[in-house]
Amino acid sequence: MFDTREETSWNSDEGTPQFITLSLEEPQKVSGFSFQFQGGFSGQKSELIMYSADGAQIHQEPFYPEDINSPQVFPIAESVREKACSKLKFVFESSTDLFGRIIVYDLQLLG
């Protein structure tokens, strides 16, 4: 999911919700993110939760991926872009897959 190789991916188990948590070595300002899902296994109703270095939640916002294979870019609300975060959690409340599985080929944070 992070090696930029098209033949590797991350896949979830069955059921909902599914989530991906990223813990950053150093706090970073994040202006957006991009996902590349496998069509048929995309997140639908989804949510980003951002945390500060002390573990406090500093932002939460929904995002709605399309069921496509192409990379999709999601900007983060401008009011939050100047806040450094140490952890991000992407929660997929539903999936395009009947069994709730998610497959991600690429996830990038945008600075």
Describe what this molecule looks like in 3D:
The chain is mainly beta and 111 residues long. The chain has a single domain (10-110), classed as Galactose-binding domain-like (Jelly Rolls). It has strands at 10-11, 18-29, 32-37, 46-51, 57-63, 72-75, 84-92, 103-110. A hairpin with a 5-residue loop joins β4 and β5 (57-63). The protein is globular. The model has no long low-confidence stretch (mean pLDDT 94). Residues 1-55 form the F5/8 type C domain. Keywords: Receptor.
Map the helices and strands.
Blueprint: E1 10-11, E2 18-29, E3 32-37, E4 46-51, E5 57-63, E6 72-75, E7 84-92, E8 103-110
Antiparallel strand pairs: 1-8, 2-7, 3-6, 3-8, 4-5, 4-7
Instruction: Compute the separation of the termini in Å.
Output: 18 Å
Q: What's the CATH topology name?
A: Jelly Rolls
> Into which percent range does the helicity of residues fall?
under 10%
Count of separate structural domains: 1
Number of strands: 8
How confident is the prediction overall: mean pLDDT? 94
Biggest beta-sheet profile: 4 strands, antiparallel
* Biggest sheet strand line-up: 1-8-3-6
**What would you say the CATH architecture is?**
Sandwich
Helices and strands, in order, run as EEEEEEEE
Structural category? mainly beta
Fraction of residues in β-strands = over 45%
Q: Characterize the overall form.
A: globular
The radius of gyration over CA amounts to 14 Å
* Structure annotation, total helices: 0
CATH class: Mainly Beta
Unreliably modeled segments: none
- The H-level CATH homologous superfamily, spelled out, is Galactose-binding domain-like
